[in-house]
Amino acid sequence: MKNMYDYINETWNKYYKEKPEEYKQYLIKWRSEPRIFRIEKPTRLDRARSLGYKEKQGYIVVRVRVSKGGMKIQRPSSGRRQKHAGSKLISGQKPKEEIALERAQKEYVNLRPLGLYYLGEDGKYVWYEIIFYDPAIVKN
């Protein structure tokens, strides 16, 4: 027997996998928002509840945007030209989830992270939602 969160998860998968045109409208809207954006309610309620989110005072949800792609090594500005001039793309050492969490924690210093989950991606960005709680209000 399915519960309510199973149906919410099915709806999410339907939008994300079967109807990408409708889902792209969310991404277009999120692209114009700031990189770290506090939202009222989680986009994926089933995932947030599985991480321990409760809709009461002391819990907040933040949507974080992280750019995709690697990093370029800076090209040498003086001296002889190397054979490998350092303009190759390298991959970062940290996963995107960790980068998103660090950036959000800089913004919300007094809060503790409860968990994060994937929201979506386009050609340029990846979005995550991070659930924070206030340790002064919520006793975990």
Low-confidence segments: none
Number of strands: 6
Radius of gyration (CA) equals: 19 Å
Shape: globular
Strand content bin: 25-35%
* Terminal Cα span: 30 Å
Order of helices and strands: HHEHEEEHEE
Sheet of most strands: 4 strands, antiparallel
Provide the spatial order of strands within the biggest beta sheet.
1-2-6-5
Structural class by sheet pairing and helices: alpha+beta
Overall average residue pLDDT: 87
Given the structure, what is the number of helices?
4
- Measured as a percent range, the helix fraction is 25-40%
Q: Any overview of this molecule?
A:
With 140 residues, the protein is of the alpha+beta class. It has four helices and six strands. Strands 1-2-6-5 form a four-stranded antiparallel beta sheet, with helices on both faces. Strands 3-4 form a two-stranded antiparallel ribbon. The longest helix is centred in the first third of the chain and has 15 residues, at 4-18. The chain is globular, with a radius of gyration of 19 Å. The mean pLDDT is 87.
Give the helices and strands, then pairings.
Blueprint: H1 4-18, H2 20-31, E1 36-39, H3 45-51, E2 59-67, E3 71-72, E4 89-90, H4 96-107, E5 112-121, E6 125-133
Antiparallel strand pairs: 1-2, 2-6, 3-4, 5-6
What are the defining features of this structure?
single chain; 140 residues; alpha+beta; 4-stranded antiparallel β-sheet; two-stranded antiparallel ribbon; 4 helices; 6 strands; 33% helix; globular
Short précis:
This protein is α+β, with helices and mostly antiparallel strands. The protein is built from four helices and six strands, in the order H-H-E-H-E-E-E-H-E-E.
